[in-house]
């Protein structure tokens, strides 16, 4: 039996287990989210229930199972991946877009008979989504049950909670006591006496602690209850060393078992005014709050505060970018010298680039799984090469032809990186150079933006798309996401995307870092995405207010062999040349030999 057949058979058997539990519990449908009790982007193994049941490894997707149907709802980034990984499983790929009527809730409301029950684990379901789902399903005559975890009952060998210890992030420039004091001040403005926080990056940032409970992200499983005279940290037994425990207690933070968070909420006295963020707390935890407690809903103050990097944090980030850029230069120097001489696959690219990063000072881990995608594979924005399915870039003696896209990043104690570069393998075609240059123009457009402080970040999305729209082209993902300080590579509340809220929560302020990554994808042929990280910094003050601009943080040459100079304006060419001059100046001290020679060659003026 081949690997696909084996995986398909495993998924069929697991779906059968789910259906058995559903019959025993009197449930007509089960809705399996991609989530955990902290609403994280990357999940600990214990909460990878959707992946366990379906075999689909993408970072987003919703599984729905009934007695006679199983389907996985995924957006355009994952269509091809889902088709491949669900083969032989009996699970249908349901392709979604932003059009109305296409969600899994729409399907449930239409296809499950009235009077039946739909089960979803409320412990991992966001509060806002729970409210909208209950309303929509109730209107269709369905009952939404959130106190039943069907996956947990079917998953016999479910992984335990992670047990790795936490540690202090020594480069955090602001003491945890100052951060907690600032949060309490914001609580006072909202009239709240207590504040409950579940999002792992908020907890890590507030406490100046880091961990390794989640792949790629240096966070740890915990909840935090901020009170008038202190704070309670709910964390696994044995995860905090004795000396650190004493340090936390001296700062007013006491430790409590991880699984007592809901019980602590339930024990809050009448008259308490509890601040919770409805976008960042689960339905299950909200349900634990007693009726005598007044609930104030608002954005976590820490979410906004940690997005505004201090000058000291930005200085650390610049150091991380130099180390990351040096690693990329060393990799690309090897890559170009190895073409036609060594066997190179997408997996080789991942291995060699990861090894170069690991050699750099302060490196801790990758910040996400590397996307190394050759030719048609690059047309899938979230493609991931595996041992079972990957492309060969070049074999010895060959003259390969195509485009290689590499989207990668690292976690350094001084910052989090995320960068995408596309390089030619062989001689690029005129169409490839045209596509690349139009994407580059969009990236430069956003890089050069000047805008009033407080501009809603989604409003800048059109700047990156304009050169593509002018040619009838577009891409199906957002242009940028926030990035944390040795934390989440995807951080809120801001981002450059048309699907984000266009409200005060996404207002751009000095110190906010976002990715800048427009793209263009030709299915079955190639994909192009160029990405730098950019930071909002003060620009000027006029009679119309304070204006901001973007400082480009990422440091790695953009391959000018793919640029059609005739398509660039004088201003765009000047920007590219100035960027390369900065890259050359900043990275030279970190390089020698072939890597330095490659840097000098690839940063020549256009």
UniProtKB/TrEMBL annotation:
<dbReference type="GO" id="GO:0046872">
    <property type="term" value="F:metal ion binding"/>
</dbReference>
<feature type="domain" description="Peptidase M24 C-terminal">
    <location>
        <begin position="547"/>
        <end position="606"/>
    </location>
</feature>
<keyword id="KW-0479">Metal-binding</keyword>
<keyword id="KW-0645">Protease</keyword>
<dbReference type="Pfam" id="PF16189">
    <property type="entry name" value="Creatinase_N_2"/>
</dbReference>
<dbReference type="Pfam" id="PF16188">
    <property type="entry name" value="Peptidase_M24_C"/>
</dbReference>
<dbReference type="InterPro" id="IPR050422">
    <property type="entry name" value="X-Pro_aminopeptidase_P"/>
</dbReference>
<protein>
    <submittedName>
        <fullName>Aminopeptidase P family protein</fullName>
    </submittedName>
</protein>
<dbReference type="InterPro" id="IPR000994">
    <property type="entry name" value="Pept_M24"/>
</dbReference>
<comment type="similarity">
    <text>Belongs to the peptidase M24B family.</text>
</comment>
<dbReference type="InterPro" id="IPR033740">
    <property type="entry name" value="Pept_M24B"/>
</dbReference>
<feature type="domain" description="Creatinase N-terminal">
    <location>
        <begin position="14"/>
        <end position="141"/>
    </location>
</feature>
<keyword id="KW-0378">Hydrolase</keyword>
<keyword id="KW-0031">Aminopeptidase</keyword>
<dbReference type="InterPro" id="IPR032416">
    <property type="entry name" value="Peptidase_M24_C"/>
</dbReference>
<dbReference type="InterPro" id="IPR036005">
    <property type="entry name" value="Creatinase/aminopeptidase-like"/>
</dbReference>
<feature type="domain" description="Peptidase M24">
    <location>
        <begin position="316"/>
        <end position="535"/>
    </location>
</feature>
<dbReference type="Pfam" id="PF01321">
    <property type="entry name" value="Creatinase_N"/>
</dbReference>
<dbReference type="GO" id="GO:0005737">
    <property type="term" value="C:cytoplasm"/>
</dbReference>
<dbReference type="InterPro" id="IPR029149">
    <property type="entry name" value="Creatin/AminoP/Spt16_N"/>
</dbReference>
<dbReference type="GO" id="GO:0070006">
    <property type="term" value="F:metalloaminopeptidase activity"/>
</dbReference>
<dbReference type="Pfam" id="PF00557">
    <property type="entry name" value="Peptidase_M24"/>
</dbReference>
<dbReference type="InterPro" id="IPR000587">
    <property type="entry name" value="Creatinase_N"/>
</dbReference>
